[in-house]
Amino acid sequence: MNVQTPTLGIGLFQPIVSKLTRHSSGLVVAMVVLFSAVFLYGAFTAPNFMTLFNLKTVIRDAALVGIMAIGLTFVTLSGNFFLLSMKETAALCIIAFATAMSAGYGFEISFLFSMVIAIAAGVLQGLLIGLGGNPIVVTLGAAGLFFGIGSFWSDNLVVSFRRPHGAEWLGTGSFLGLPNITVAFIVIAIVAELALRYTNFGRQVYLIGANRAAGRATGHENLSMAIKVCTIASVCSAFVAIAFAAQVSSAHVNYFSSSFGSSGDMTILVIATVMVGGNSIMGGYGSTIRSSLGALFISAVDNMMVLHDFNSGPRVLAVGLMIVFSIIVFALINRGRRVQE
Amino acid sequence: MTNPDNNAASTGLFNRSKTWVSNNPDLAFSILLAVCVYGYFALTNDLFATHRTSYAIMERFAVLGLVGLALTLCIVAGEIDLSIGSNAALAAVIVVRFTDSIGAFNALFVALVISTTIGLVQGYFIAYLRVRAIVLTVGTLMLLRGVALFAAEEKTVMLTDFDVTDFIQTKMLGYFSPASLLVIGVFVLVALFMNYTRYGREIYAIGGARKEALAAGINLKRPMIIVFTISGFCAGLGGAIIGLRSGTAQALGLQYLLLAGTVAAFIGGVSILGGKGGVIGAAIGTLAVNFLNTGLVFNVTPAFMVQLYLGILLIVVIMFQTGSRVYDNYQRRRSILATVDGRRDQMLENKKKIQV
């Protein structure tokens, strides 16, 4: 692991640059240069891309995916790969929130209710993963379960609640000219980064992710860690669900399967964000700031391609290429550095 | 007169089946589960145990069986292929789009070549870059969706000529259609390959004990490439069958295949640690899932409830596997501790004897 400098901005790029110069082949450098050249060309030629208003749009688009990606980063950093149930957890929580709101229980109670469900979902998955279940398979099953419960509960209908309601400030309000969801994204990103760097818990996440055997030898079992990180990821999904419900004043289990991005699958978009940000999927290396920047980058590329009149096919293709590209680059950089299990 | 002989034969059969069950507990469990599900629906619903339903189940088997087989092979090799739904969707789009212009056979050929090549390339990258398959396939999942959207021009593509659709659904030999016969042929071939060729045994070796396989001189790249090539072929064939049968294809469809296929593979007795399970298990697991699916449809259950049941089933199977592994570890640790304690007591006694 690198020694990370405490300054947020410089600490991020310095390890990447030093790694590139130390390990990389010409191929990697060529790929990075080519990719940034295409991006910069697109950015400068797209109409209205480099305006302040568009910058705000990009951040706002990135916010919801970014919050989920920050939650998922904890799971990835702790070496538990990723959760395939992010979107379904959000779907269950959005139904819970909207049902409570439409029954007339105010924002606070609905919020807590939704969070309790998210925590239960996170603990269930974390328990199974921590006991030794494969994260992918466990969360694949959990995804089916949560989606089924959400559909059953809402009868596969749209649950709506009338304006004015207590959640409007979160969904449509703004603070100092920034939408509140964007503000929440920035606050969550900073809090998560500080927690990872300066708290015991954060350092334990890195330890267990980097070397599980060493973690076990020093008394940090993966069981409690898996429960904690899965709960964090679920709570982040629930927060996104609540923010989205507050924005549109309604809920349906398919909101996160169809309304987001161009790919039609929020979970994969979130995983893409974590990967494109440059976190090591095997754990132990990365940070939540990287995920936030990954969200901004994907959102910027998407925005740019929309401004260039691309349809959804090429846009999904571009995001897919970005993921595969980052996987290949990181695999080439890290090759031979770490023994495969 | 013949009674003793008969008795001997029946006890022999009984004993033999008992040893078979104790030798293959996972397969026995999956057969039991399949029979129970079938029996439940056959008893509660008059229409279930009929010829037509069996034909419909075999039709479903054609697609889900291929996906279950592909995932079984991947999990046997200790990896998992998440891009299977996207690969199938891409093949479906290609077949449906090009059937009208170049004929069904050529379109099928093109689609199979493309999906098999995708599998091959994936396997090559996984083996060469030494990344875990889930990492790469989650990327190709999105990439192939993009390619499929591109190929379908973001629309739902449709057949105009339904001759092929009719042909692959004609009844043959009572319960089968050309599609399901083809799939059964694929199953037999893959079973022979996995059980009786060296390359097939290597797949089990790298899944069950990768370090030992490496020490035994197995090239890790070859089995990985073979597994993902077969997986890509199966996904493509499954997608092509769905596309031709329904006459339409969507680039964003077929996402449910991954969950259903994984459930089928796990019921069929694979272990997430790899090296366990087989083609027969995959077939039986798929049949169990199909019985459940079809029976739920007969009882007018909405589609999302099917997903709920599948999710529960998967979690229960995983809980059993994890639980048995945790229990095994616990027992092993206890027995080691007991041995250590025993030795210590022995040594203390010896010490006492010497001192006396």
Write a structural description.
The complex is a heterodimer of chains A (341) and B (356). Chain A is an all-alpha fold and 341 residues long. Chain A has a single domain (50-333), classed as ABC transporter involved in vitamin B12 uptake, BtuC (Orthogonal Bundle). Chain A has 15 helices and 4 strands. In chain A, strands 1-4 form a two-stranded antiparallel ribbon. A two-stranded antiparallel ribbon of chain A has the order 2-3. In chain A, strand 2 (174-175) and strand 3 form a beta hairpin. Mean pLDDT of chain A is 83; it is low at 1-10. Chain B is mostly helical and 356 residues long. Chain B has a single domain (41-301), classed as ABC transporter involved in vitamin B12 uptake, BtuC (Orthogonal Bundle), CATH 1.10.3470. Chain B has 14 helices and 2 strands. Chain B has a two-stranded antiparallel ribbon. Chain B is globular, with a radius of gyration of 24 Å. The model of chain B is unreliable at 1-5 (pLDDT under 50). The interface between A and B is large, with 53 and 53 residues.
Roughly what percent helix of chain B?
Answer: over 70%
Low-confidence stretches of chain A: 1-10
Number of helices of chain B: 14
Number of strands of chain B: 2
**Approximate shape of chain B:** globular
Structural class of chain A: mainly alpha
Proportion of residues in extended strands of chain B: under 5%
Low-confidence stretches of chain B: 1-5
CATH topology of chain A: ABC transporter involved in vitamin B12 uptake, BtuC
Largest sheet of chain B: 2 strands, antiparallel
* CATH fold-level assignment of chain B: ABC transporter involved in vitamin B12 uptake, BtuC
The residue-averaged pLDDT of chain A reads 83
CATH class call of chain B: Mainly Alpha
From the N-terminal CA to the C-terminal CA of chain B, the straight-line distance is: 72 Å
Largest interface: A-B, 53 and 53 residues
CATH architecture of chain A: Orthogonal Bundle
Q: Please work out how many helical segments of chain A DSSP would assign.
A: 15
Identify the CATH architecture of chain B.
Orthogonal Bundle
What distance lies between the first and last C-alpha atoms of chain A, to the nearest angstrom? 18 Å
Q: What's the arrangement of strands in the largest beta sheet of chain B?
A: 1-2
